[in-house]
Design goal:
Number of strands of chain A: 0
InterPro entries (chain B): Cell/Rod_1, Cell/Rod_MreC_2, MreC, MreC_beta-barrel_core
Function (chain B): Involved in formation and maintenance of cell shape.
Radius of gyration of chain B: 23 Å
Family (chain B): Belongs to the MreC family.
Distance between the termini of chain B: 68 Å
Shape of chain A: globular
Distance between the termini of chain A: 13 Å
Number of helices of chain B: 2
Number of strands of chain B: 12
Keywords (chain B): Cell shape
Structural class of chain A: mainly alpha
Order of helices and strands of chain A: HHHHHHH
Strand content of chain A: under 5%
CATH superfamily of the largest domain in chain B: Rod shape-determining protein MreC, domain 2
Oligomer: heterodimer
GO cellular component, one term (chain B): plasma membrane
Largest sheet of chain A: none
CATH architecture of the largest domain in chain B: Beta Barrel
Largest sheet of chain B: 6 strands, antiparallel, barrel
Number of domains of chain A: 1
Order of helices and strands of chain B: HHEEEEEEEEEEEE
């Protein structure tokens, strides 16, 4: 049960850090991240998806959390509402749906995360194009933005997968004793 | 086997898409027309910005440490170059002061009031950047309380870097000049040719590969030389006059061969912004 688990503190704190880390890292490493290509880290999505994988028998109410965080993402970072508010829950939904058919291990999680990031970037870019807030072409998007961003995020995923798994497992086990 | 699209889910998904597009339309319209965002948005942005300092502070601190060390290594070389320029700067400064004084007296005599070069400025530091590849936007730690108003221009170092697009109580958002967006306002800029002719134009785009601003819609076909300095022209009444943009590096004809396209190297480094100056008209 969530009520007995330390995860009820750890998950929101991690969410908080991940949310602001996105903006802080993008702002401080802009010289490396934005050149002719551009890549952007999405720690928030990483934390949400990994929480889904490792929550086990504890229900963290990720659908609601992802909607709240997505809404804050829109308000604070994008200033246009209604993008992440729906895309983050959609990602959780897709991951859950795929998760049922696969045994969870590093490779399958990696693939699911790959699909998640792609869906998120493509949908949000389409939103921007529909409302004419950006002028980049789809080709430019695929080559210079989607590719590098996927590479960066999968790299971060590969680094943080095992530490976060360790974190979740450790605190789930303690609650059983 | 679970179906991805059951009937009920399909309805929910469609409703979600409609709400999403509706919210988008609403926020795009509001950000275009109103000077401040709705109260709820403003409030939550203030709270988020304040809470974010817990994470942003340490990250920025580490970055400052690294960049300071890096700067220290360059100090000797820089010092050599700067020494040569110092003598020149003092002379220009003295002359500037004299001219400024004269200018003020003349203005008083003519009873002109404020001209487009009169500005007031606010210094701010950058707290966040939008994690998005196609929206170059930074968030600074000054807002309505400190006198920031929507559409004020933003300088990094001495060069034009962008424009304020959203103002909250204690933080505001800036769209950088590198942002690719035809619906956002363009900056009116001007160049003076060697024979004293003034060419007006606007910023029409940004070339990511070469880090160059493109100037288009030129008012005349006079020959431009690379190395000429580009300033804001103050036309349109939003941007103050006389903000340095950069130097011309290349003049070519545009895709259709009808008008010339000018590439400008911006003087501001858009990818390492830590401190900005917000400049507005003084009225």
């Amino acid at each position: 049960m969530l009520r007995d688990s330390p995860l009820r503190f750890i998950f929101p704190i991690g969410m908080f850090i991940a949310f602001f880390l996105d903006g802080a890292i993008t702002s401080n490493l802009a010289g490396i991240l934005f050149r002719s290509y551009s890549m952007v880290p999405y720690f928030t999505v990483l934390w949400l998806v990994l929480s889904l994988f490792f929550e086990g028998n504890i229900n963290l109410h990720l659908e609601i959390w992802s909607a709240i965080v997505g809404f804050l993402f829109d308000l604070f970072y994008f200033r246009y509402l209604g993008i992440c508010l729906f895309i983050f829950p959609l990602i959780i939904y897709i991951s859950k749906w795929l998760y049922r058919y696969l045994n969870l291990n590093f490779i399958s999680a990696f693939l699911i995360y790959f699909i998640d990031i792609t869906v998120m970037l493509v949908l949000s870019f389409m939103d921007y194009r529909i409302f004419d807030i950006t002028d980049f072409s789809y080709t430019n998007f695929l080559v210079n933005m989607l590719g590098p961003t996927l590479a960066l995020n999968l790299f971060i995923f590969a680094i943080l997968y095992f530490p976060i798994q360790f974190l979740f497992n450790r605190y789930r086990v303690r609650q059983k004793n | 086997m679970h179906k991805f699209f059951s009937n009920r889910r399909l309805v929910i998904i469609i409703v979600c898409i409609i709400i999403s597009l509706g919210l988008m339309t609403l926020s795009v319209e509001i950000s275009k027309k109103k000077t401040t965002p709705p109260l709820l948005q403003q409030f939550s942005n203030d709270v988020t910005g304040f809470a974010g300092r817990i994470v942003d502070g340490p990250v920025n601190g580490v970055h400052h440490l690294f960049s300071n060390t890096h700067q220290l290594l360059n100090t000797y070389q820089e010092n050599q170059i700067l020494k040569k320029q110092v003598g020149n700067v003092a002379a220009v400064q003295v002359r500037n002061q004299a001219l400024q004084g004269e200018n003020q007296q003349l203005k008083r005599q003519l009873k002109i009031g404020n001209t487009p070069t009169d500005t007031r400025s606010i210094n701010a530091s950058v707290i966040d950047r939008t994690p998005s590849s196609w929206q170059d936007q930074i968030i600074i730690n000054k807002g309505e309380n400190d006198g920031v108003v929507k559409n004020m221009s933003v300088l990094v170092g001495s060069g034009l870097a962008g424009r304020v697009v959203e103002v909250n109580r204690s933080n505001s958002k800036i769209e950088l000049i590198t942002n690719s967006n035809s619906s956002s306002d363009r900056f009116p800029i001007q160049v003076t040719t060697k024979d004293g002719k003034v060419l007006n134009g606007i910023v029409t785009g940004y070339d990511r590969n070469n880090n160059e601003i493109e100037m288009g819609n030129l008012t005349s076909s006079a020959k431009l030389k690379s190395g000429a300095k580009v300033l804001t022209s103050g036309l349109g009444g939003i941007t103050p006059k006389g903000i340095y943009v950069g130097k011309i590096v290349n003049v070519s004809s545009d895709d259709y061969g009808l008008s010339s396209k000018v590439s400008i190297k911006p003087s501001a480094d858009m990818n390492d912004i830590q401190v900005v100056t917000v400049i507005g008209k003084n009225n």
